[in-house]
Amino acid sequence: MSETSNANSFSIDGQRIPFTPGQTILQAALAAGVYIPHLCHHPDLKPHGSCKLCTVIVNGRNGSACTQMAMPGIEVENNSPTLNDRRRVLLQMLFVEGNHFCPGCEKSGNCQLQALAYDLEMLAPHFRHAYPVRPIDTTHPDVWLDLNRCIMCELCVRASRDIDGKNVFALAGRGVDSHIVVNSPSGRLGDSALSIDDAAVHVCPVGAIMVKRVGYAVPIGERQFDEQPISRQVDYLAARHIPIVPVAATEER
Amino acid sequence: MNAPMNPRKLRITTTSLSGCFGCHMSFLDIDERLLELAALVEFDRSPITDIKHCSQHCDLALVEGGVCNAENVHVLRELRANAKILVAFGACAVNGGLPAQRNHLDVGQCLSQVYRTPDGSATAIPDDPELPLLLDKVYPVNEVVRVDYFLPGCPPSADTIWKFLTDLLTGRTPRIEHPLLKFD
Question: How much is the ipTM here?
Answer without folding.
Answer: 0.92
